[in-house]
Amino acid sequence: MQLCMMTVMMANYAVEDIVKTAVECRMPAIDWISCHGKDPKYLKRLCDDAGLVIAAHTIFSQEALTTGVQPRECFLRSLADAVALGTHTMMVPPFPDDSIADLSEARKRWIDFYAWAAPIGKAAGVQITCEPTGFINSPITSADEIRETLDAVPDLKLTFDVGNMATADMDLVGGYQKLKDAIVHFHLKDWTITDQPTAISDLKRTGKHFANAIINRGALALRNWWINVDPAQKNLYVNLETSDPQNVIPPHELMKMLSDELRNW
Question: Is the pTM of this model over 0.70?
Fold first, then answer.
């Protein structure tokens, strides 16, 4: 597995320590989820010096990406950051807009946005991707919803977040098969899933309650799903999107533990 540091999972660390942890974990790549308030050119120098590939840049502002808060301006700023970072992939997550109750209408607005954004990214040498998002009112989450979006926007590709898709569509292998032709990046995430709410769970579109779990300790059969990924796509980068829900294992230690565990999947 080609592991990729997902910087938001270490958001309370200095950027220099995030890069250091990625190197210590023997991760070949990093995904800058925002620029952590730093100049992207500085982040690029850090990664170049450490021998890390900047696999992607991800916009991380739910408010700025809803249709009511001028997502186009946010996109153009982030695209400039992606170019400065030297990455060729930028993910724009289709967060829900609380002002739109109808998911099909919200999805149409995102399709219109991606149809505008993806060609601009392409002209700048940056592949724009979407992902499934896992809120109860997320408009692009199930495999069929993702497929609808991708089919409507030929220049758009997919960051396949297996955990987020599971909040609306638990057929992980079937969902992957429907979407694999468009996948350029993976996110790995796990959940504890219950029928009744817990202190740390959220209700998802499956009607179940989901709480964050350490990768490979939750309810998703992630190893079985990964076995079914096409061999050629196992060389794509995989973000480890995980934390300890008990707040016992510090993020840098957890990343090291999981990197050692998952590297040879």
Answer: yes
